[in-house]
């Protein structure tokens, strides 16, 4: 496989497989093809495919972020205790922001207040700044294991400037959860 | 000839196709000296060639520019590895092989015991939420694992499709998450395969490094009282299966001609059944409830539903969202007895929030008579009643009533016990739905099963005394909990599997065939697996038919119809 990169565009050329070649010979063959390709300037050496860390899909978003406008910095604390600082924007939904940054916050019902899989703990000093939960959110929170005073559903939290510095901690549902005399939930 | 050369029946060679993301394993040098096989030549890599045309691999040995065809195998769908067993072919196919050798390219061959990166093969039995969440976690955490999900029905998603009520479509959104998992390259779906009869767990254990049992609870707890077998008595599982399109329940034909229906049990499933029985038709028409059951419900004469529980209001197993729905159900009114709630206001002051809010809502519904709300249909919660007999009609052909023993509580809170007082009462009714719990069943003698608890004995998802076997979901913990609980549980089991792979407890160094090994076996047994693409065809047909009648989908309820569509 020969990779030709032109900026962010990736083109792949399949090199027909040549038997009886050692890896080194194959690499040389690739390089030869690379250089001999007419009209195309290869900017990268022939190497195996890899994916780079998550990029912004839209250049616009990236530019606005640069300007610092509407940025709300929040910190997700994942189940292993690792802190992940994230630059969100005013109006962002906490659940989908987590997904964009690869944080494992499940949203089974896709923000329709029909499950409790996006249950998070909100840092105390920000918890009061959130609007009161809808009755339906409270109903769903009642089903969430390890419910605490500062529990909220991530899919119902929309970022505002006053939530700057908010910490969203994912509940630690460990195996001990089942050992500690947990009573089965209704279904 | 082959045996003399030291190549035994048990030898297997592995080929990696160029389509896989793994590097070629084992190349051989051009120009190695070739001698005729059978003359004591060692069957080394130098003598082997592979010839591939599309999905067929042929292993040949070169000798004096002639090719001896040893064996061939077909690359299985979705598999980047296949196992060739040699020797298999007894005949030569020289001309054929020669032509191929000229026209196509050859790939390396690797004998067992290579040091290639392992691609662990994991099999999941059961394509419901537990199965898919376990698969999801495995695929996300391990970049090489191949996960195959086996499902008895041609259609996936288990109780998300067949258990969640038709008027709860948002709960079914999780199907989108499962679909993403199933569409991944390293995830295979094999519907219409019944583990335990079409293929045994032993056979799965040989083909895979790990087998995870997530087949849920296909049975229901029995009441154990006389009259249970009378017509007119159904388990909630069957009743729900009937309106949700479970193929096995399509001919249930519940009797909806009497005015009163009694539901035994006060959990969310009981409330679902009550709600479907009493919902206005205009609302049901727009859901994915099956056409057959909608027709029957349209002719239903059920006007009063009693939801009966052995214990009191503080022990109801239902949750607040479902209760609120019942209270607000158009065209119906709750008929709760305020006497059941005496003294409860103080009792709930210190209980955990969920129980407190639920009880407060119950009390409000019982004590406040909604103004001007005389509705045609009525539902009530009957507490402290335990069924003892189902009473037959005079001609003994069907159920016509139920005898309930009055109980009282011993102890308090979640662990209070119901004790008989000796009093009884009788209720006339034409339909009795028993909603006292689903129950798992053993499906294969190779899997340990605890008959008393009706689960697979396990520790953290590792099946006891059965290395290589794991379990997740209801078959692991018992049939209780919502999708979120099953999700956490499945992630737990996946973590156990990953830990075992890491520690070597689960030996993944020896490659296994995976689904490829079962391909021929299933064919021989006349089983045609339905792939995920096959399900997507069924999905498209159901959605299209639903659109015609203003429903999200019109479910196919016959397995034969499903198979026909999937194979188009």
TrEMBL record, chain A:
The keyword Cell membrane does not apply. The keyword Ribonucleoprotein does not apply. Keywords: 2Fe-2S, Iron, Iron-sulfur, Metal-binding. Residues 73-174 form the 2Fe-2S ferredoxin-type domain. Its cofactor is [2Fe-2S] cluster. Signal peptide: none annotated. InterPro entries: 2Fe-2S_ferredoxin-like_sf, 2Fe-2S_ferredoxin-type, Adrenodoxin-like, Adrenodoxin_Fe-S_BS, Beta-grasp_dom_sf. Electron donor, of the core iron-sulfur cluster (ISC) assembly complex, that acts to reduce the persulfide into sulfide during [2Fe-2S] clusters assembly on the scaffolding protein ISCU. The core iron-sulfur cluster (ISC) assembly complex is involved in the de novo synthesis of a [2Fe-2S] cluster, the first step of the mitochondrial iron-sulfur protein biogenesis. This process is initiated by the cysteine desulfurase complex (NFS1:LYRM4:NDUFAB1) that produces persulfide which is delivered on the scaffold protein ISCU in a FXN-dependent manner. Belongs to the adrenodoxin/putidaredoxin family. This is Ferredoxin-2, mitochondrial.
Automatic annotation (TrEMBL), chain B:
Keywords: FAD, Flavoprotein, NADP, Oxidoreductase. Its cofactor is FAD. The keyword NADP applies. The keyword Oxidoreductase applies. It comes from the Eukaryota. InterPro entries: FAD/NAD-bd_sf (IPR036188), FAD/NAD-binding_dom (IPR023753), Ferredox_Rdtase (IPR055275). It comes from Huso huso (Beluga). This is NADPH:adrenodoxin oxidoreductase. Gene3D superfamilies: FAD/NAD(P)-binding domain (3.50.50.60), NAD(P)-binding Rossmann-like Domain (3.40.50.720). Residues 121-277 form the FAD/NAD(P)-binding domain. Pfam families: Pyr_redox_2 (PF07992). Signal peptide: none annotated.
């Amino acid at each position: 496989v020969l990779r030709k990169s032109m900026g962010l565009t990736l083109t792949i050329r399949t090199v027909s497989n040549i038997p009886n070649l050692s890896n080194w010979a194959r690499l040389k063959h690739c390089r030869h093809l690379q250089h001999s390709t007419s009209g195309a300037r290869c900017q990268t050496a022939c190497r195996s495919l890899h994916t780079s860390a998550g990029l912004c899909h839209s250049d616009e978003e990236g530019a606005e972020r640069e300007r610092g406008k509407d940025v709300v910095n929040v910190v997700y604390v994942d189940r292993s205790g690792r802190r992940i600082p994230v630059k969100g924007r005013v109006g962002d939904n906490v659940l989908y922001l987590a997904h964009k940054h690869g944080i494992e916050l499940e949203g089974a019902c896709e923000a329709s207040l029909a499950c409790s899989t996006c249950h998070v703990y909100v840092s105390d000093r920000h918890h009061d700044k959130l609007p009161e939960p809808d009755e339906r959110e409270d109903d769903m929170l009642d089903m969430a294991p390890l419910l605490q005073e500062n529990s909220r559903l991530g899919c119902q939290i929309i970022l505002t400037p006053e939530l700057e510095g908010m910490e969203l901690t994912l509940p630690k549902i460990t195996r001990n959860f089942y050992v500690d005399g947990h009573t089965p939930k209704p279904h | 000839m082959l045996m003399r050369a030291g190549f035994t029946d048990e030898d297997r060679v592995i080929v990696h196709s160029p389509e896989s993301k793994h590097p070629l394993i084992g190349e051989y040098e051009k120009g190695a000296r070739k001698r005729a096989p059978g003359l004591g030549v060692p069957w080394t890599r130098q003598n082997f060639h592979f010839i591939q045309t599309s999905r067929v691999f042929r292993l040949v040995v070169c000798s004096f520019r002639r090719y001896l065809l040893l064996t061939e195998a077909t690359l299985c769908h979705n598999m980047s590895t296949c196992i060739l067993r040699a020797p298999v072919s007894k005949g030569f196919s020289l001309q054929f092989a020669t032509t191929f050798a000229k026209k196509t390219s050859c790939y390396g061959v690797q004998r067992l015991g290579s040091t290639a990166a392992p691609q662990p093969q994991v099999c999941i039995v059961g394509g419901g939420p537990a199965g898919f969440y376990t698969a999801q976690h495995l695929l996300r955490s391990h970049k090489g694992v191949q996960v195959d999900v086996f499902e008895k029905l041609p259609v996936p998603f288990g109780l998300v499709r067949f258990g969640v009520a038709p008027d709860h479509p948002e709960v079914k959104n999780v199907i989108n998450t499962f679909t993403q998992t199933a569409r991944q390259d390293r995830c295979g779906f094999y519907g219409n395969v019944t583990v335990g009869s079409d293929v045994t767990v032993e056979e799965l254990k040989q083909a895979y490094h790990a087998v995870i049992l997530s087949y849920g609870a296909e049975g229901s707890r029995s009441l154990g009282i006389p009259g249970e077998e009378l017509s007119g008595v159904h388990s909630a599982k069957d009743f729900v299966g009937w309106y949700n399109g479970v193929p096995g329940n399509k001919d249930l034909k519940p009797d909806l001609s009497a005015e009163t229906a009694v539901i035994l049990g006060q959990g969310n499933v009981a409330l679902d059944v009550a709600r479907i029985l009493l919902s206005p038709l205009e609302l049901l028409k727009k859901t994915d409830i099956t056409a057959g059951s909608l027709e029957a419900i349209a002719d239903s004469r059920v006007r009063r539903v009693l939801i009966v529980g052995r214990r009191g209001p503080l022990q109801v197993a239902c949750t607040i969202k479902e209760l609120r729905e019942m209270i607000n159900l158009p065209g119906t009114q709750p008929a709760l007895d305020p006497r059941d709630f005496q003294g409860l206001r103080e009792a709930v002051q210190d209980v955990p929030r969920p129980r407190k809010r639920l009880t407060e809502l119950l009390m409000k519904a019982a004590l406040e008579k909604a103004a001007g709300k005389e509705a045609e249909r009525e539902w009530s919660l009957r507490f402290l009643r335990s069924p003892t007999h189902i009473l037959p009609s005079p001609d003994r052909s069907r159920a016509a009533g139920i005898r309930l023993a009055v109980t009282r509580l011993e102890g308090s809170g979640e662990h209070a016990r119901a004790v008989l007082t000796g009093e009884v009462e009788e209720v006339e009714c034409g339909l009795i739905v028993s909603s006292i719990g689903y129950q798992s069943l053993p499906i294969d003698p190779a899997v340990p099963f605890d008959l008393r608890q009706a689960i697979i004995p396990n520790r953290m998802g590792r099946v006891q005394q059965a290395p290589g076997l794991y379990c997740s979901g209801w078959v692991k913990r018992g049939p209780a909990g919502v999708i979120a609980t099953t999700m956490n549980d499945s992630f737990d089991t996946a973590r156990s599997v990953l830990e075992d792979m890491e520690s070597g407890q689960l030996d993944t160094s020896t490659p296994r065939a995976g689904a490829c090994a079962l391909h021929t076996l299933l064919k021989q047994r006349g089983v045609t697996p339905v792939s995920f693409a096959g399900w997507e065809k069924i999905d498209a047909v159901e959605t299209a038919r639903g659109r015609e009648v203003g429903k999200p989908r019109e479910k196919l309820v016959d397995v034969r119809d499903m198979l026909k569509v999937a194979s188009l």
